[in-house]
Design a protein that fits this description.
Two copies of one chain form a homodimer. Chain A is of the alpha+beta class. Chain A contains three helices and five strands, in the order αβββαββα. In chain A, strands 1-2-3-5-4 form a five-stranded antiparallel beta sheet. The interface between A and B is medium-sized, with 34 and 34 residues.
């Protein structure tokens, strides 16, 4: 019997869980200073580039769909994309909307986003609903 | 006539150019503190996740091949992978070998790698030759 997959506690502490796509759970970082999404594929691999090619392509395709949402629906011209995982070993991909003049431009967000802004619950619900409509996100 | 593609000056300043794969130019960051490779696909797109799916998959496959080299040939257990580009607009992908205790572990290298170590020309040649053999890198 396949063991039930659970998202790492640290990610659940840092983020709102929005739902899931075909391959990945979709989280939203609680810091609203920039739109910072995190995708967690259901895999035991810890590095994106270690995934078998087909699975890797599927996961990156979901990141691309999320990136398109960040650009077209949230109005950010640039997306930073990274798989780091030096602190949280569970594979997770960062998809971060960026624009000149944002809270830590041009530095990458990791370790540099000192400004902290809260989402309202309405904002989180709006983002979740938009992803349900546009990307067929399910709960 | 297709204009000749040139790698961005800043990347050529920061890196050794090792050669090219089918889709990407392969650079090696001059700071030898960690094995830090940079892939530059020949495209006008600035964000990895904006590439058409087929091209995106081809580029990520080359990053995966390079990552396998970093792990199996250079002996690094972890690879950080990112497409940021907030400073240098030309699309480039970071493939960085990491291990606990390295020069800036567990911080990401961007903005945190204060230690600087030089490669010898022999070391660069050895890496280039290994990539020519293992990944069919050409000049």
């Amino acid at each position: 019997m396949k063991e039930k997959f659970t998202v790492h506690d640290q990610l659940l502490t840092d983020c709102f869980r929005l739902g899931q796509l075909q391959a990945c759970h979709v989280l939203l970082h609680r810091n609203a200073a920039v739109p910072w999404f995190i995708l967690v594929p259901e895999t035991g691999f810890q590095d994106l580039l270690d995934l078998p090619a087909e699975e890797r392509d599927r996961v990156v395709a979901e990141a691309a769909a999320l990136s398109a949402f960040v650009k077209s629906s949230l109005g950010y011209p640039k997306v930073n994309f990274a798989a780091i995982g030096n602190l949280v070993p569970q594979l997770h991909l960062h998809v971060v909307g960026r624009k000149p003049g944002d809270a830590c431009w041009p530095a990458p967000v990791w370790g540099n986003l000192t400004e902290s802004v809260d989402y309202t619950s309405t904002q989180v619900t709006d983002i979740r609903r938009a992803l349900e409509t546009i990307l067929a996100l399910r709960s």
